[in-house]
Input
Amino acid sequence: MATYLVSVLNGLAMGSLLFAIALGLSLVFGMMDVLNLAHGAVYLVGAYVAVALVADGAGVAAFVLAVLAAAVAGAVLGGLLAALTRATAHHLDQALLTLGVALVVGEVLTLAFGTDVHSIAAPEPVGGGVTVLGETYPVYRLLVIGFGIVLAVAVYFLVERSPLGSLIRATVADRAMVAALGVNTGRVLVGVFAAGAALAAVGGVLAGPILGAQPGLDEKVLLLALVVVVIGGLGSVRGALLGAVLIGQVQALGTALLPQYASFLVFAAMALVLLLRPTGLLPARTAVHA
Amino acid sequence: MGVVSVFSLSRTIAGLALGALVLSGCGSSLGESDTAEPGGGRSGGDVKIGLLVPLSGVYAPVGEDMKAGFELYLDQHDGKLGGHDVDLVTADEGEGPQTGVPAAQKLVTQDQVTAVAGVVNSATALGLRDFFHESKKPLLIANAGADAITGARKSDYVWRTSFSNGGVSGALGPAVAEEAKGSVYLMAADYAAGKEMVAGFRKSFEAAGGKVAGEKYTPFGKTQDFQPYLSAIRKSGADAVFAFYAGAEAVNFVKQYKQFGLADKTPLYGTGFLTEGGVLAAQGKAAAGVKTSLHYSTELKSARNKEFVDAYRQKSGKPPTAYAVQAYDAAAVLDKALAKASGDSGEDLVKALGGVGSIDSPRGAWKFDADHNPQQQFYLREVRADEGPAVNAVVRELD
Amino acid sequence: MTPQRVTPLLELRGLTRSYGSLTAVDSVDLALAPGERHALIGPNGAGKSTLFATVAGTLRASGGSVLLSGQDVTSLPEGERARRGMVRTYQHSSLFLDCSVLDNVALAVQRVHRVAHRCDRAARRFRHIDTEARRHLDSVGLLGRAQDMAAALSHGERRQLEVAMVLATEPALVMFDEPTAGMSAAETERFVALMERLPERLTVLIVEHDLDVVFRLAERVTVLHLGKVLASGPPEAIRADEAVQRAYLGSARTEDLFAEAGGER
Amino acid sequence: MNIKAVKAMRGGTHVPSGTTPVSEPLDGDSACDSGSGSERRSGGHESGTGDSAKGPGRRRAVVAVAVVALLAAAPVVLAPYPVSAMSRMLAFAVLVLSVDLLTGVTGLPALGQAAYFGAGAYTAVLIGIHITSDALVQTLAGLVMGLVAAAVTGWVAVRASGIVFLMLTLAIGESVHQVADTWQAVGASNGLAGMPPITLFGGPPLLAAGFVHWWVLAVAVAVFAAVALVVRSPYGRTLRGIRDNEARMRALGYRPALARYGVFCLAGAVAGAGGALWAQQARFFSPGDMGFEVAALALLSVVIGGPGSLWGPCLGAALVLLVRDNLSASIGGHGPLVLGAVFIAVVFLMPRGLAGLTGARLRGLIAARGARLRKENAS
Output
């Protein structure tokens, strides 16, 4: 039993990271109908920022600095992507465009950092392990869970309780209507795109001590984030949270319970959810055209 | 435009085009043997060699090492193999047969190379076997480890300067059976190489009286978090673990093995790929104490190896890996065979390959066995990370 | 005409639709005789659109039933009702914008003629589909634009195309959802003329703001107020009905009675 | 991706497509009648009754004959490698056609066609090794296996559209790939090697790349013709209707899920045939040949080529393979960099994909694009 509880804990850590990464993807899709396939590349930029700044186990201050640097880099990339995707209205073209950016960014990272696998050490004070339920558990992962909770609460208040949030939600529901009301949606859209990308890049730093950094990681992370977004419901903040927690658990607890089917679990869970609820578990509210 | 004129025009164009093409006779792909271009490979004393290694994709680090190893040999021999100036054509193998097979076909049929060396991916190697066999061109596998390459699907034209999966892990079995106090848990990535590694280990391990506590395969290339498996190991009460991973999975596995506290209680064994090259650099101190089997280590004490390590460091700025040595040796084998070969054809070269005898390699002398696989010494290595960067110290020779 | 004697083509029995605690349509009873031209009017918020959507099957009924030629279709989705000869138009034209005008109509024709899943011959080899589609286009005056993209049509032309598509399904009942909303006076005039040319046997239910249009086209009019039927009868009777006057005046939206619907688009 | 449909689905409400500003006649080879539609539009206001597309139709036939003739002439003049590269492109183009049936014609972004490609390929290899080297038998068996595999798995996906469809097909593709990757009977991750060269009608083994190329070309042309027929048939019209406005189709009495299931099976068969061709020219197949990368490149070829057009995506397939296989090595393994740059360039320079690049349309497109951008920026 204790073994499975540790897996649950681990699933929460993974879920926290997935939430940070998937949130931007979901909002950008919900608000702009843009499937941002460069989201994984933005994540990887964050991971490599960590490689550059704190690879060999720096102190807490340096780690925080890396987080901030990644956020800035992510926001810049996000703003750039927002500007690029506005150049075309066709959805497949936008997807193609972001994929092109993803490939270029990935390749540039490879040129700069080489093809080798890089690992990133957790900041010194939290690099060790504690005993949880009789098993050693890395302290850093506990902190990641804490970060996930803080992020979820902060995002909840920002999106569900603030004026800016209601604007975001209204834009997800009916962009044309918000624009008709005279709101400059362009700025909101670029802002959300940049913020979402910044969050993904921060996710890259925070996941660094767990997943490291290497070429190709962007694709894996993007795929998982897509699954999270689709399961949760496109454009829905609560959906992204639920999806992230669920996929975290499927990967951790699911693997612990059914190791022989490990490679099918994530996709099976997604197919099951989509067959039962094609719009995801907690779809965003859309405008009602009565 | 009138219908008739359009049609007659098109006929004319097609006719002209076809006629021109036939007359030009600049080549054709209708011959029975794809590569029967006389003298294409060696003109004016030069020899064209194809180097097929991954330059992109997940295996790119391995490819880079191999490229550096092969080039180092050429550098050390004035760019000559067997007395001929070498025109080296490098092609990108990519991640798998999708890219690797066309690239090899291009080397042989387009670039008309005399022989191809390289190939990391086993599926690519097996996919290329028939092509080289029928083209009668030698293929020197410098990494791909599938047992079948020099087993069930062996060919006169396919030679291997690296290892077979079962060979590397099989060498470790008796040593673990001897060292481990109780049962051993087996883990590997869920693909053909992982299965072969575990099978090879299990066979010699059980033959030496070892006991298996459990066996698990993790989704290949998709597993980032090993915690559920690590918990299962802990629960099984195993006294040691044998694992096969490479690349990013090796880094994550070894690091998490340490983070979740298993490294302190349950010794970790594996095939050398678990702690080789860039992987070991990324693992750092987390890998300390991991024991692996491989046919090479930078820490081998021989003078031949010391000289090689120094030269390699000077060339590429980092320590060599087994992958680099395998490609280096492929060049050495070609050097000897080209010097001995009586003619230009693949048959001549293959005949010469059979007679190259012992190769004086940084890993220690080795020679081809009857199946074209290296007959070589394996070493038990242990990661030491007390001071400076982590290294694979040589504990002893395995037999 | 006394619709009670023959089986009504469309009959609503206590049809109800509620959103949570709000009842938008409150046990509406209504019967349309075959061939009848029936208009549904009411001030904004009277529940016309909801009633319309519930009858069409776009929305699910919360209670009561919808009968088509005596058969209960309440539980059938919109598409199944369409297969039984009951089709609707959309307030905002719902067309296949990236297809040619002809293809828009042909899509309806080929479904009715059961060749929609044939792929053994090119579509133009099915001459009867082509002919039929062109006939419908001709009937709405769009034949000249058969090869243009639907997206290139003007607003009024799109409405005409809608009508052609709906007619092409060979329906027994056509429901028009505010067909003249957003049309210019000239377009409206053309549209009314088109409506007047519709085949006699066709039963028509029309929701419309423009009362001029309503009184020109309808044989009977039903007034909806707060989700309930306020009055139902011939146009003259409705015009004279005091309760109707009050409802429109009381809602403080007199403009709805006589002005063109604003704010719909 | 048909995001409109996603939005409509998730709200459960009808989003009237008439409100979206898509009113440019030039937006699309997405257009109905991928073939003759474009000519119709560029032809302007023809009478609308006769076969106005006759002139351009003839011209297209001439071009088609010329292209096939050139492809057929290739083995006579070219060395084996370029010929086998062309065979590979043709086999891949067949896979791309199957994706185009779903994505371009029906509006369903598919990421799982590699699964049926693989099913066809493994079938062909297994038949080649164990039963017969007859190419026709292998190809037909591959086609049937693709069809069956799509019929068995397709019901999961066809209920959805838009990005949900994308993700469900991705799930199917990845799961099938995983099965192939670990199933010993088909060689697991090492793949199935040792397929003897194909024969035709009891003739000698076709060892030379040129003869194999002719066979692959013949099948590819046949598949292309069959797909073209489907696209122009009433069923093709039905599929385009679903792509344009699924809700309206339902209101017209159609059952879109049924029509989608049909085209999904059809696309599975096409992909299966493509897989058989691929296996026949490579005489080998491994899970790496049916992975995510293959599925993604096939979808991208469609997008690059211009969804809905048939020859555009085929050209896209050739371009993608050319960049990946030939350019990558010559620039030190940085093929992805070039591929990425190509993707970006296509979006900015060829808004309707390669298929948009037909002579006179080009100027119009540039003008229309400017207008569209201005409009969007204004809104």
